[in-house]
Amino acid sequence: MRPSRDQLASENGGQKFAWFMADRAEYRARAGGDGYLWDVQGWYGGDIDKLWMKSEGEGTFGEPIEQAEVQALWSHAIAPFFDLQGGVRHDFAGPARTHAVIGIQGLSRYRFEVDAAIFLSTKGELTGRIEAELDQRITQRLIAQPRVEVNLSAQNIPELGIGAGIDSAELGLRLRYEIRREFAPYIGIEQEWRVGRSADFARASGSAPSSTNVVAGVRLWF
User: With helix as H, strand as E and coil as C, how does the chain read?
Assistant: First the structure.
């Protein structure tokens, strides 16, 4: 009976699946030079354990990439809608850094999608990131998505232009239209702020401590 039991378990939740999403792939119009941003992620696994891959980055056209990272994480379900994740992150743009990562990702009350993580670099630098977004359906195909992101640091990191405390914050609103559930172009606006010591580092490098981005992009998954 063991083969029959194994087959029954596999057919009722024991399967392995793969999923990929480009949550944000966008053009950003702003003062001082237009730019681009990507934020993609995917996983392979079952209901309880998954291997996650994440990548995000941004830059200004005609200039070196400002920020680019890749994460490889093992994810384990700790609640019906939340996973505990751990693994590594490597930064490719600017001074190279490799970090140990531990975080949580899932769907909180009132359907907020939350992704929070702590990063410890090989140089002993402790930083964190919290992201949250919410899909508000206007129609079955037109969706407004407010989004907030906060980056934090336990210490000043002058080499990276990061100050202790709240490093930066982003607040945005995107309006997307789902031509298909898997393919949705969008437009929106996002405001970014560098805070405290990070704002001082930005001014010292000749950058503005805040910027407004008018964005246009596409969200797709399969």
Answer: CHHHHHHHHHHHHHCCEEEEEEEEEEEEECCCCCEEEEEEEEEEECCCEEEEEEEEEEEECCCCCCEEEEEEEEEEEEECCEEEEEEEEEECCCCCEEEEEEEEEEECHHHEEEEEEEEEECCCCEEEEEEEEECEECCCCEEEEEEEEEEEECCCEHHHCECCEEEEEEEEEEEEECCECCEEEEEEEEEEEECCHHHHHHHHCCCCCEEEEEEEEEEEEC
Domains and CATH numbers, the chain: 16-221 (2.40.160.40)
Q: CA-to-CA distance for 175 and 146, rounded, in angstroms? A: 9
Distances (CA, A) of 182 to 30, 48, 114, 123, 215: 28, 24, 21, 40, 20
Q: Tens digits of per-residue pLDDT, 182-199?
A: 999 999 999 999 999 999
pLDDT-based confidence at 13, cuts 50/70/90?
low
Strand 67-79 and strand 82-91: the pairing is antiparallel
Q: How confident is the model at residue 69 (pLDDT cuts 50, 70, 90)?
A: very high
38 contacts 55 by C-beta, under 8 angstroms: yes
Q: How many CB atoms lie within 10 A of CB 163?
A: 22
- The percentage of residues in the chain with a pLDDT greater than 90, rounded to a whole number, is 86
